[in-house]
Amino acid sequence: MIVWRDAVPGDGPKLAALFARCFTDTFGHLYHSRDLAMFLKGQGPYGWISQLANPAFAVRLGEVEGEPVAFAKLGPPALPVERRGRSAELRQLYVLSGHHGSGAGQLLMDWAIDTARGRGADELFLSVYVENHRALRFYRRQGFEPVGSYDFMVGNHRDEDVLMRLTL
């Protein structure tokens, strides 16, 4: 059973490791090891600790027997999108593959939407890899609509992401 809680700065190392594992498991095969290592270095514990200490960010963490298995990070919008009002960005939503189909992704999405609304956002943005069909279907079921594309860099490798918006 997944136990949910709000992450705190002390969770930075756990979240950095969980992110690295989820990202590598899902996308690692797409990249040269140098590019992947460069990207993951930029997602290390100190960046997480800094964001977790910043009230502009909110992170929901799911654990099983004290081990992290899922998380979502909400923050101020940084994507190159045209905003229509107050906005938030779902920066990351990851669930370890062994917990896919458990409802964890939906719980995290519900948390992200509720939290964005609670912070006064009128719209929620995210980006998703154009070939991540499972995630694209999930976000469309939530009501997100494509609003453009974005170059997502993993080291020196450029991927195309779909920019998506949900009107809250």
Describe this structure in words.
The protein is of the alpha+beta class and 168 residues long. The chain is built from five helices and seven strands.
Please report the total strand number as a whole number.
7
The best one-word shape is globular
Which sequence of SSEs, written as H and E, runs from N to C?
EHHHEEEHEHEE
| Low-pLDDT segments | none
Q: Biggest β-sheet: count, sense, barrel?
A: 7 strands, mixed
Would you tell me the overall average pLDDT? 97
Mind telling me the C-alpha Rg? 15 Å
Q: Would you tell me the structural class of the helices and strands?
A: alpha+beta
- Please state how the strands of the largest beta sheet are arranged side by side: 1-2-3-4-5-7-6
The count of helical stretches stands at: 5
Q: What is the helix content? A: 25-40%
| Strand residue percentage | 25-35%
Separation of the first and last Cα atoms: 30 Å
Topology:
Blueprint: E1 3-6, H1 12-27, H2 33-41, H3 45-52, E2 58-64, E3 67-75, E4 87-95, H4 104-118, E5 123-129, H5 133-141, E6 145-154, E7 157-167
Parallel strand pairs: 4-5
Antiparallel strand pairs: 1-2, 2-3, 3-4, 5-7, 6-7
Helix pairs in contact: 1-3
Summarize the structure.
With 168 residues, this protein is of the alpha+beta class. Helices cover 34% and strands 34% of the residues.
Keywords:
168 residues, alpha+beta, globular
